[in-house]
User: What shape does this take?
Amino acid sequence: MKRKGNLSRLKEKGIELFFFSNGILAIIILIGIFYLLLSEGLPTFNEVSLKEFLTSTRWNPASYSEPSYGILSLIVSTLLVTIGSLIFSVPLGIACAAYLAEVANPKVREVLKPVIEILAGIPSVVIGFLGIVLVGPMIAKVFNLSNGLNAINGSILLGIMALPTIISISEDAISAVPEKYKEASLALGTNRWHTLVKVTIPAALSGIIAAIMLGMGRAIGETMAVLMATGNAPAFPASIFDSVRTMTATIAVELGEVPYNTPHYYSLFAIGLVLFIMTFIVNLISDIVLHKYGEGQ
Amino acid sequence: MKKSINKELIILVSILTLVGVVLAGCGGGTNQSQKEYLQIKGSDTMVNMAQVLSEKYMGKKKEAAISVTGGGSGTGIAALINDKVDIANASRIMKDKEIKQAKDNGVNPKRFVIAMDGLAVVINGENLVEELTINEIARVFRGEITNWKELGGPDKKISLYGRQSNSGTFVYFRDNVLKSDYSANMKRMNGNAQIVESVKEDKAGIGYVGIGYVVKDGKVVNGLNVLNVAKDAESKAASPLKPENVKTGAYPLARPLNQYTNGQPTGLVLDFIKYELSEKGQKIAVEEGFYPVSPKFQKLNQKNLSK
Assistant: This one.
C-alpha cells in the first residue's frame, strides 16, 4: 500500500517537473529570440541614426545610388492595414459573438462555433491567394480603381484572419456575464435587445477589448496574405487605396537575398525588433485588460 | 475504458507514421546516392525553361536527378556564393562585389549564357500606345511621367508593376534602363507571371517581363500589348517579338540569360550545360519563348567550357 503511495507521489512530482520544464523552455526560447533580434539588429545603428531609421520615409537599402534605411512608411503602412482590418472585423466580430452567446439557439451555436474556428485554420497563403484573385478585383470594380492591390485589400484579408480570435474570445466573455445581471435588467422591463446592448456587452467589455487586442496582435504580425495582396510598394501611403508594403512583408521579401552581416541585413533584424516591440506592447495591454477582467469575476 | 484504448491507438498510429516518415526519408537518401544529384536555383525568368530542359535531360539520362527552383537571381547567386547549389540561374550578370564575395568563400564563378531574352515591356491590351523610347520608359518607372496622356495614351494614372529587389530582372532594368531608383509607388510583384496577370487586369498598367512569359505557342498572350522600344528619339523602335531584333541587338533590351557554376564544370554539370547549349537544348529555349544564344556569347561559352 505504502509503496504504491510513494510511487504515485513520485509520478506526480515527475509530471510537475515536466510541465515546469516546458514552461521554462518556452521562456528560454523567447529570451533567445529577443537576444538574437537585439544582437543582429543593433549593429544597424552604427550606420544609420535611430532618428533616421524611425522618421525617414525612404526605404531603399539596395538603391542604385545611395542606400537609405527609413522605416516610417513601413510602420505607417503596417498600422494602416492593421487598423483598417479592425475597423471592419471588430463590429462584425462582436455582433457575431453576441449572436452566438445570447441569441442563437444551442443547436445553431454548436454548428457555428466550430465553423468559425475552422476559419482560423485556413493557411494565410490561401487567404492571400483569395486576395489576389477575388477580393482585389472586386475592390477595383467597386471603387473604380485600376487595380485592387492596395491597403484596403490587405485590411479585408487581415480582418478575416482576425475574426475567429475576436469572435471566440468575445463570445467567452459575453457568456461569462452573470445571469443575474440580465435577469435584473429584464425584470426592470427592458427587452432582450436593450439588455444585450446596455447591460451584457458593457459588462463583458474588458474581455471584448482583450479579444480585439489579441486579434490585432495576430493582424500586425501576419506576413503572407499582406505580402501577396497589398502590392508591395514602399511608398508613404496617401490613402487606403494606395499600394503599401508592411514591415513583415519587407523582411520576408528581402531576407532571402541580402548578403550576411551588411547594414541591409542588420536593418531587417532591426525592423523585426521594432515589430517585436509593437506586438509585445499590444499583447501586454491585452494581457493587462484580460487580467483585470479575470479578477472581476 | 474505451476512450483510453482510443487514445493509445492514436498515439501508436502517430508513432508509426513518424517512424514511417523517417524511414522513408532515409530510404530516399540511399536511392539518391545511386543517382547523380544536381541542384539549380535562381532566376524566376529562367525557371520554367530550366525546368523543361532538366526534365527532357532526365528523360534521356536516367541516372541524373535535377532539381530546379526559382526565387530570383539574387537568391541563386547568394546560394552559389555560399556553395549551396551546383548551378545558379541569373538573368543579370554577377556584380564585382559578388564575385569577390564568392572568391573569398573559395567559390570561383564561371559564366555560361544559355539563351537570350528580349525583356518585354508590356501594357494592357486596351491601351493603344505602341512604342516608347528607353528614356520615356525610364521616366515612367522613375515616377517622372505619371499619366498615360503624356505618352499619347488615355487620360489615366499610370500604375507601375515591377519585380522585387531579389530579381535579376529588377536589377537589369534598373541598371540599364532607369539608371536611377524605381518610383516608390511601383508595385513589387513576386514573379513574371504575376506581372503578366496584373497588367492584363489593369487598364493603366505597365510592367516588364521575360519574353518567355509573353509568348505562348508563338502568339502574344491575350489582353497584353508588347511595346516596341527605341534606343532614343532618333532610332527606330523595334519589337522583341522578332528573333532577329534580339539577335542583332536592334531591340535595346536584349539580354543574355546566364548560368553560373563553381569553377570549371565537370561530370553531370558539364554534361547538362553541354545539353543546354546543344541544338536540342536551344530548340527547347525557343519553344519556351526565348531566343538562341547569339554568336558573341557562343564564343564566351566556348571559352569557358574549354578552359
